[in-house]
Amino acid sequence: MSDIFIDLGVLKRVRTNIEQIGETMERPGKEMEEVDGASMGVSMLASRMNDFGDEWSYGIKQIKKFSGAAVKTLDAMQKAFEDLDDTLAKELRKAREERV
Questions:
Q1: How far apart are CA 43 and CA 69, in angstroms?
Q2: Is the four-CA dihedral 44, 49, 54, 58 of positive or negative sign?
Q3: Is the dihedral of CA 15, 20, 26, 29 positive or negative?
Q4: Contact 32/51 with Cβ under 8 angstroms?
Q5: Residue 1: its pLDDT value, please?
Q6: Residues 19, 67 contacting (CB under 8 angstroms)
């Protein structure tokens, strides 16, 4: 028989770190989206700068989206393990009471 052990402290730290990644990257993503390539002067450079800003912003939005999904998944995992632990504890108490 094997033991299942989940370190909830580690799970919470990972969740917080992932959530912070999304939040931290949100501002630079918005700033890059607002970059105006025309300020570069050279039309080819301006066009490329606009494209870069759009691509950067899209990538950051994807990181935010995926980090949000990861946070929800980690929350669900924590709840599932806590519920399982509660159920197991109740069943053990019930079995102990039946033996007495």
A1: 39
A2: positive
A3: negative
A4: no
A5: 47
A6: yes
